[in-house]
Amino acid sequence: MAADHAVVFVVDDDPSIREALQDLIQSLDLDTRVFASPQEFLRAERPDAPACLVLDVRLPGVSGLSFQQELVKGGADLPVIFITGHGDVPMSVRAMKAGAIEFLSKPFRDEELIDAINVGIERSRAQRREAARGAELRRRFAALTQREREVMTLVISGRPNKRTAAELGVSEATVKVHRAQIMHKMQAKSLVDLVHMGDALGLSTGKSQAT
User: Fold this and answer.
1) Would you tell me how many other CB atoms lie within 10 Å of the CB of residue 173?
2) Number of domains in the chain
3) Can you tell me the distance from the alpha carbon of 55 to that of 57, in angstroms, rounded to the nearest whole number?
4) Is residue 210 part of a domain?
5) By CB distance 3.0 to 4.6 Å, which of 41, 80, 164, 207 could disulfide with 35?
6) Domain of 22?
């Protein structure tokens, strides 16, 4: 399967619902994986692809809302669409606050679910693009020398070359050489671009995500 070919996961304990949802989703030319329980879903191998999860609220052993929270805590950034035959307003508010895309009460129109799935897939694609960008920035930052990292941290904080040189105990000319190397290695088009990269890396708060 192509890496960007989207997949929709369905977790519902009702076999007839699973079959109906699988037929509907496959008609959209989307890969569909159905599961009878959260445990079955967790045991399965998930493809590296944009994805979303259609999740029943009431499941044996664990509620869909609790499972959603478990996924979030575990770092699984998977857009969730809840379906339920027993929904209420407090439950839907709780689900949406936890990041759910939609909360659909049965019976719902096919178009409602299709729209929610499209939103979920697009959100997943955006998340994957952002994750890939973050990984690339961390790779570039890791390629800097220790001195270049120090210079970059000071430069993006707004310090001029002269002050940066004084703080590091080097010449201003050396700082300029380091800045040029940093711009090249980070592939920054401007100082503003470099500052944005520093923000994404957490340098402005001193919590760099680079290793």
Assistant:
1) 10
2) 2
3) 6
4) no
5) 41
6) 7-130
